[in-house]
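User: Here's a protein and a ligand (magnesium ion). What would the complex look like?
Assistant: Let me lay out the input and then the predicted complex.
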Amino acid sequence: MRILKGNPVSRGIALGKVYIYRAFKADVHESYFEAGKEDEYYKKFKDAVATAEKELATIVTSMSAESPEKAKIFTAHTEILMDEEVDEGVKEMIYESRAMPDYAVDEIFTDFANLLEKAKDPLIAARAADLRDVRNRVLRILKGEKESNLANLRENVIVVAHDLLPSDTATMDRNRVMGVITEIGGATSHTAILTRSYKIPSLLGVTDAVQIMKNGDNIVLDALAGKVLLDPEKEVIKEYQEKLVEFIKEERETSEYLDKIPLVASGERYSIGLNVGDTEPEDGYKYVDFVGLFRTEFLYMGSEYMPTEQEQFEAYKKVLANAMGNPVTLRTLDIGGDKTLRYMALPKEDNPFLGNRALRLCLDHMDMFKTQLRAALRASAFGEMKIMFPMVGTIDDIQAANAVVAAVKKELKAEGHAFDEKINVGIMIEVPSIGVIADLAAKEVDFASVGTNDLTQYLHAVDRMNPSITKYYQSISPSMLRILGRIFSDFNKAGKPISVCGELAGDDIGAVVLFGLGLRKFSMNAANIGRVKRTLSLFTLEETKEIASKAQNMSTEAEVIEFVKAEIEKRNL
Ligand code: PEP
Ligand code: MG
């Protein structure tokens, strides 16, 4: 079994077969015809336009009643298709240069799309995708090919594609498509917007998904934890079937807790944070007190090139605008290990998780690091932003990163840019070497957030991506609980905010123990908020303290899990 990671943009679980979808790819060459055939070729173009118009009209009609919003996308496509400038451009190429219609269409549409792409407004730039979509439709018709789309599927599938065009997503057969996985898909991606509205679990930014998976492969799409499990064993399938049933049931039950103030049974208040991986609005913002983790790498992974400072600035500003007043903790680029960028060639390493990743890589690629910090700082003028560094191992790391922030602030000031001069800068605690000197680290930072996913990996010396050793991956082991207790108490003593943004905070067993160990800030995926609030409401502070201290003194993780689970079940009856 192999595991791939991605950005869950539409939550849920799907089990099933892969359907690799490749959109029509036009093979257009520069080509011309002999004089005298101008009328014939222009007519060919006009006929193709007429057919395209009919196809679009059919889509609009079939969609208008159910989803007028989506139908609008195709009305816009019709407008692009009928645009006079496009017609004139193609006509001119056919009559003046005797360009073959497909070549003329390709040239004219591509020119317009390139122009749009350069627009400063990312929303306008994203419309280039619509132009390319219309171009492909006309080219396909010119080639005499039938529409190949996701609307006529014969069985239930999980669609895997490099990217989906708006028309692919909007027309897909929602009864047959159980999940969507794409290699790219950014902030304004239609795929994200549409799959969310269809409630189809989807994962974007899964590097090389189309190369790695084949038609008919059995997979599990976990769009809660953000991973795809390839060729899962029987037990894993069974486990996920149960998770799916549980997911549906819990969705119903726990949604009642979303709105409630986060309190334990004895009245102590704690805060819930949200983990996000994109810039889109989401319901989760309504139910939280802060954004404890904004994983910026998905922005980089969802792009075909290194995002520019301006693009990043716009994206970060957008997150702040969508966050409903919640402070946003922006984690600087966490790449390397399992996360790669297709446009950034990194030397192959024997042990990538122990290698040049995250903050180390940023400190090694100063231009890239500074660009991100400039964008983040500039965005901080538009809402409460915090900056957080991943994979910090030493105090030297913190000092080096802080020095870059100071240098970037100086630059921005000299250039007259506005930014939050008092911006909070903190670290992730996910390497044990910094965890055991949390008291010293607390002096160097404004806050910290524990990444229990990596902390488990490094504390237990277990590769988090290696499915053959999952039994060693113990995020709630007595060793984890001891180091966590120490980190919380060091930060609490220093009066510096400490949170957990790893998966453990969103796990109800984990949350009970973490509360007892002194944690009051839990950051998680939106899908977990209701359940954690509900579980914590069942315990008093004293009870959680007692449970945590007992758990720290147990011998094995299995004992801890069994014990806390029983405590929860007892109160659930
Ligand atoms: C973690 O390590 O716990 C964490 C939140 O970061 P990521 O899962 O992105 O490595
Ligand atoms: Mg991590």
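Summary: The first strand starts at residue 2 and ends at 5.
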